[in-house]
């Protein structure tokens, strides 16, 4: 099995940290914190207005639905009080997923299920959903084995997640993760992933696992009535939906920050799936996926395109439109050989994982033609490039999480 590297690929104020002076990053973050300390973050959440959240909440609020956030953990934050279940820590192997030294997972979780009961702070699009945290990243924002992410997906499925959010990705496919996603499909779970961000020297095609057939792959749009594609979003044939992904106020342990990246567009699609599953608890995952596709607001060229997929996710339409049911996930166009639709889940791994064989030019009999065997190079897609210069500047400036104010 090749190495797995998980590292943030977006930034607070630019696609990559080298694109913007560190001072600009600090100033934008400080401005977000100042607004937050005055209790003004609710007014800054343009994504809620764009997605007509107030109308959607008249129909569903996410109650009864668990959304797994497979990420850097989900830390303590007033916006998430009472919203987060006991999860799993696959980094330290001795925790419940509530430690988030990176901040990324906490931001994702609040965009999905931030509290709406006091009109303050970050409000999630599905404010009554519950978050199941699964930590797969260490304090340096990386991990060395894609099977850890796969294990996290399987664990989330086995612990009643109805939607799984994967705001991470990389250039290479992983058979272990592909099988875990198949397992999720077989267990009637919706899987959402970000497409990835443009970065110097990084992948130019949509990242994996977003390009895994059956996954809702999400691109990002920028603020404005024209719904322009965010310039940092990757595009490609596997793009399925678009959602707001830049100039967002994010909750993080200790306070708030301004974030952008496809990492933060994906949770808005996950939240929409949670709204649908809240309104219709018995609706199969395949029909939830179909409903989100069929009700999306078409952007760009007529019909599906590589920038916006089928269009901007539309929670209100998804909760009101008549959509014919389907038997299978229509995005799952390349099931395993001999299988139909979601296919049959592989057995759950037990004990110590056995290292996979090295990739070879000729696949052995029975190999999956749609997936690369071997390693997965994953990266969190958004927030701040924790391996780059921007975060170094932030840390040197003393802007650590324990110094940030709350708005509540």
Model description:
- This protein is of the alpha/beta class and 408 residues long.
- It has a single domain, classed as Rossmann fold (3-Layer(aba) Sandwich).
- The protein has helices at 22-37, 46-50, 53-56, 104-113, 146-158, 175-186, 266-279, 285-294, 315-320, 389-396, and strands at residues 66-71, 88-89, 130-135, 163-166, 168-170, 190-194, 216-221, 241-244, 248-252, 255-259, 378-380.
- It has a 7-stranded parallel beta sheet, sandwiched between helices.
- The chain is globular, with a radius of gyration of 19 Å.
- The protein starts with 21 loop residues before the first helix and ends in a 12-residue tail after the last helix.
- It is a single-pass membrane protein.
Q: Low-confidence parts lasting 5 or more residues at pLDDT below 50?
A: 1-30, 35-39, 337-377, 383-408
Structural shape: globular
Number of helices: 10
Q: Widest sheet: strand order?
A: 2-3-1-4-6-7-8
Fraction of residues in helices?
10-25%
What about the largest sheet?
7 strands, parallel
Give the tally of β-strands: 11
Oligomer: single chain
| Gross CATH architecture | 3-Layer(aba) Sandwich
* Rounded radius of gyration (Å): 19 Å
CATH homology group = Peptidase S8/S53 domain
Mean pLDDT: 78
Q: Secondary-structure element sequence?
A: HHHEEHEHEEHEEEEEHHHEH
Assigned CATH class: Alpha Beta
> What distance separates the N and C termini?
46 Å
* Estimated structural class: alpha/beta
CATH topology category name: Rossmann fold
Subcellular location: Cell membrane
Family: Belongs to the peptidase S8 family.
GO cellular component, one term: plasma membrane
Active site: 71 (charge relay system), 104 (charge relay system), 263 (charge relay system)
